[in-house]
Write a structure and sequence with these properties.
The complex is a heterodimer.
Chain A (H helix, E strand, L loop, with lengths): L2 E3 L4 H8 L4 E4 L5 H6 L7 E4 L9 E3 L5 E4 L4 H6 L9 H6 L5 H6 L2 H7 L6 H8 L2 E6 L2 E6 H4 E3 L2 E2 L6 E7 L5 E7 L9 E9 L8 E9 L6 E2 L1 H7 L6 H14 L10 H20 L2
Chain B lengths: L1 E7 L2 E7 L5 H8 L18 E4 L2 E4 L12 E3 L12 H8 L9 H14 L5 H7 L10 H13 L1
Parallel strand pairs in B: 1-5
Antiparallel strand pairs in B: 1-2, 3-4, 3-5
Helix pairs in contact in B: 2-5
Classes of the chains: A alpha+beta, B alpha+beta.
Chain lengths: 282, 152
Amino acid sequence: MVGFHKPATLAEALALLADEDARPLSGGQTLVPMLNQGVVQPSLIVSLGRLRELRGITRLAGGAVRIGAMATHAEIATSTLFEAGQTLMPRTAVQIADPAVRAAGTIGGSCAFGDPTADWPVTLCACGALIELASAAGRREVPATDFFQHYLQTELQTGELVTAVTIPPLAGRGVYRKFARVYGDNATVSVAVILDVDVAVEAGRCRFVRLAVGSVGPRPIRLTAVEDSLVGRMLDAAAAEAAGAALAAEADPLDDLRGSAAYKRRILPRLVQRTLLEGINP
Amino acid sequence: MIDITLKVNGSEQACRVDGMTTLLTVLREQLLLTGSKRGCDYGICGACSVLADGRLARSCLLLAADCEDRAITTIEGVAEPDRLTDLQQALVDAGAVQCGFCTPGIVLALEALLDVDPKPDETAVRTALGGNLCRCSGYGAIVDAALKVAHG
């Protein structure tokens, strides 16, 4: 027998979630399949459906965008609040799963699950997002690059809930490329890029870049040394593929049903190259 | 057990559920609305699709106890009794039904699309069907029917 509560306030929800056998329910796109398959057996399910403070997407003074943990992928996909490099967010959201999952699944739920083959971890690492966590003991913010730690392991501690994700202002434009076996599947390999290139004085010169790859190891891979090496130089096909090769050298993918580790390592540099070049020539 | 009231196809239904009982289980086993099919039971096949507040949803991924504030429409409720929607008639006319197991979910996915985009192009139709598996692989006729009902 599993209990069910749908509290009206965040404080009440956090008090219930202090019990290590309680699980929060957001869009249900991860928790419910796990319940159906008997993978998790909580004593209590705490629905977050009545918590207004976890909803909505807002643009803050200074240009950051704060996304409530209960914002659905579909809401993010259609939001017009993301500007310049932040457009990586809607461009990622629209590639998640299928329409029914996008309408129900939430960014907070996806983050909390911590699946490195999912789309949000790699994109949030590229954005330098901050993930806001709350528990009965208080609140804290963790950079996405520290939050996602290992297969299905995050920085979340017992009793903590993801409450929001904040995207800083970012120059340029965002591009997300996901290589998947079939529409709706998780990524075999995914690449998230934010790129600002000179279009006038020195056309093609890279002014700012963020580059992260996903689904090729226990956590997203972002190498600031690779990003730094691209800034200030002409971003051509050779430089873009070299960046991909540097990331592939750090990749530690699994042999699984989405492909062998060797296969994923092999397609990674070309996928990085295509994503970077799409950032230059949309 | 928890006593809940669900609003299904416009009528209120009192049900008794466990915290982890899915909406699909309640629809099929308590309300005997067996048009929603249990294919995979983990959100991949789309055969259990319903509309929740007008939006496409997988009933196997909704917990019944979490649905008290949502209006649920199942395949049994999309048309008046003994009538078909224009889309359903178009699917019949196009021969877009083979074994039929996926058809209720396909109808709801396409009704949800046509509700927000009455004149979809083929890409939009195929995207809308992206979460509905037809293992007879009868997609061609299904897409044709959707385009015909939208564009005449």
